[in-house]
Amino acid sequence: MSIKLCVLASGSSGNSIFIGTESTRILIDAGLSAKKVTERLAEIGENPENLDAICVTHEHSDHIAGIRVLQRKHGIPVYANGGTLDGIRAAHKGTHELICCQFTTGSSFEIGDLCLEPFSIPHDAYEPVGFVVRNGVGSIGVATDIGIATNLLRQKLRACDVVVIEANHEESMVHEAPRPWSLKQRILSNQGHLSNRASAELIAQIAGERLKHLFLAHLSSDCNSPSLARRVFETVLAEAGHDHVTVCLTGAHQISELLELKDD
Predict the structure, then answer these.
(1) Architecture label for domain 2-262
(2) So which domain of life are we looking at (predicted)?
(3) Phi, psi of 207 (to 5 degrees)
C-alpha cells in the first residue's frame, strides 16, 4: 500500500496537484489547460483517463482553468463545495453543465480508498478550502492560498506526514514591486497570500516527528525566488529543531519530484 504526491504546477499561472494510490487517482485543482495537465501527468506515467476526481479548493482561474475540458474529454467528476460551485458558475458561463459532486466544508468524504477532509481557509474567494488527504499509509495536507495562519489550519496540518504549503512572497519584494497599491494590499491582507516568513513560522509551530516532507507552493514569479524561499524555510525550521523536514520546491513550468509514501 502506498500514497503518491506530485505537484504538477504551482503559481499564479496555474495550480494542480496529483495524489494517487494503487487504485485511486485524483487532482487537487486543475488550473492549467487540459493539454498541459495531460502532459504533466504523462511525465509521471499517469493519464487523465484514469483520474477519479478533480477536487477544487476555490474558483479562481488559476485553480479551475482546465476542469471543463478535462471533464468533457475524460468524464472526470468535479468535487467542490457549494460556495465554490456558485463562484465557478458566476465567473464562467456554461459551467452548470459540469458533472459536480458537492461536499460540505468540514465534513470528510471518500473517493476510492482516499479519505478527504476539506477545511476552511482565509482567502478572497467564495468558500475556499484546504484538504487533508489520507489513506492507511499517510496523510497529505494541502493549503496553497492562505491570507493568515489560523488555529484550524494549524490543527489540520499538525497531523500530516507531508504538507504542501503556500510560500508566496517576500514582503520587502512586494513593497518594492512595480504593482498597483491595491494589488499589494490584497496580497498582504488576511484574505491574500502567506509570505515566506509567515509560512515558515507556521510550519515550525506545527512540525513534529511525523512531518517529513514539505512542498513550497504558489511562489510569486516577481516577489519571490525558489532559492530565497528554501533558505527562509530551512533557516526557520533548523532554528526550531526541525531540520529533519525535507524542503521541496514546486514551480509553474515544471513538475515537482514524485513522492511516494509506502507501508512499512
Answers:
(1) 4-Layer Sandwich (3.60)
(2) Bacteria
(3) -70, 135
The model carries a pTM of: 0.94
List phi, psi (to 5°) of 248.
-115, 145
Residue corresponding to grid cell 507501508: 263
Beta bridge partners of 25: 20
HEC-encoded secondary structure of 212-255: CEEEEECCCCCCCCHHHHHHHHHHHHHHCCCCCCEEEECCCCCC
> What are the extents of the domains in the chain?
2-262
- 59 in Cβ contact with 88 (< 8 Å): yes
Phi/psi for 209 (5° steps) reads -65, -25
| Chain-centre distance for alpha carbon 224 | 18
How would you write the pLDDT of the chain (264 residues) with one tens digit per residue? Answer: 999 999 999 998 999 999 999 999 999 999 999 999 999 999 999 999 999 999 999 999 999 999 999 999 999 999 999 999 998 888 776 555 788 999 999 999 999 999 999 999 999 899 999 999 999 999 999 999 998 999 999 999 999 999 999 998 767 776 776 777 777 677 767 777 889 999 999 999 999 889 999 999 999 888 788 999 999 999 999 999 999 999 999 999 999 999 999 986
Grid cell in block for residue 183: 494589488
Residue 189 DSSP one-character state:
S
